Amino acid sequence: MRIMSLSTDYFRLPLPPSEDGGHGAIDTEELVFVNVHTDLADGFGYAYTIGKGGRAIRSLIDHEIADAVIGLDFASPEDAWRHVWRRMLYIGRGGLTSFAIAALDMALWDAYAKADGVPLYRAIGAQSKELPTYGSGVDLQKSTEDLLEQIDGYKARGLRGVKMKVGRPTLSEDIERVAAVRDHLGTAVDLMVDANMAWDRDEALEAARQLEPFELRWLEEPLTPEDIEGHAHLRRETSTPLSVGESFHSPAEFHAYARAGGSDVFQVDPVTNGGVTVAIEALRAANAAGIDASSHYADELNAHILCLAERPVFLEKHAFALDAYLEDPQEIVDGFVRPSERPGHGIAFLAEAVEPFRAD
């Protein structure tokens, strides 16, 4: 395939205002669209942010990545990804650079699958799977009453699991809230908690031990992702399973965690991780190491990618869903989803829905 041209668009979608959920207050979701024209098929990709960095991502694509790929011949999107990654090494091996590469990579996988006339999951070598879903949101500052109301909403949709934030000013507050949620759910529904890197090693170990009686499916991001040994030590010292991955920006991080025994669950996000190509590599590492797999955001895309996992445990359904902006929102049936059968990834945004939020 040869990349003939590409173009970008930028949108700022309003979100219901939320208080600090671990990354600061969130009231906007940014979307950066990438449309790629190749000699065999066109492809679409996007990157998202929680309100910051979108313009920089678009600028990287327009002024750096475009120059690196227009006219490029490639046998597979993975080859194109490696080419772009090497061209971007000096200006960043992560962060916004990974977001920018991800949007292009998504578009190239879309075009690649369309050229073969197959859904994305088949293009990556997988078979369609029925994937259980769980609900999550930005709820750290919610009262316990409001938190339980949010969880009732997940249950009403038939979701098979629930995730809540932890990282309140005191651990006792977290434990009280987790106890209330577990009591509200009963033991038949999986419960996960997300610390968003709120703790140091000692705090994380104390929290993990105090959370053990609640039989959590996982404790997510207790430490910063750079602290691989800290996660490995924590995993050895507690029975509470650990989950990481949404804040990784390259395949190397997944491989490092697999080697160190630092996680029980890998959460892939094809945007933050740096592309579908990186998510594929992450799941290969998970499969080889016997690590469970889940997802972060990008619901429709992750439904394809998780089909590659040998041990897919959950697909995340986030409160910040893009359903209102999509031509064909993902359908949940009895708490499960399947990937689209359209050629490519099957994701298309409604022009009339996003156009009012176009920005410079």
In short:
This protein has helices at 54-69, 77-87, 96-116, 120-123, 144-156, 171-185, 201-211, 228-237, 251-260, 276-289, 299-305, 351-354; strands at residues 3-18, 26-38, 42-49, 131-136, 161-165, 190-194, 218-220, 242-244, 265-268, 292-295, 315-318, 336-337.
Verbal overview:
With 360 residues, this protein is α/β, with parallel strands linked by helices. It has two domains: 3-117 and 350-357, Enolase-like, N-terminal domain (Enolase-like, domain 1), CATH 3.30.390.10; 122-337, Enolase-like C-terminal domain (TIM Barrel, Alpha-Beta Barrel), CATH 3.20.20.120. The protein has twelve helices and twelve strands. It has helices at 54-69, 77-87, 96-116, 120-123, 144-156, 171-185, 201-211, 228-237, 251-260, 276-289, 299-305, 351-354; strands spanning 3-18, 26-38, 42-49, 131-136, 161-165, 190-194, 218-220, 242-244, 265-268, 292-295, 315-318, 336-337. Strands 4, 5, 6, 7, 8, 9, 10, 11 and 12 form a nine-stranded mixed beta sheet that branches. Helix 7 (201-211) packs parallel to helix 8 (228-237). It starts with a strand and ends in a 6-residue tail after the last helix.
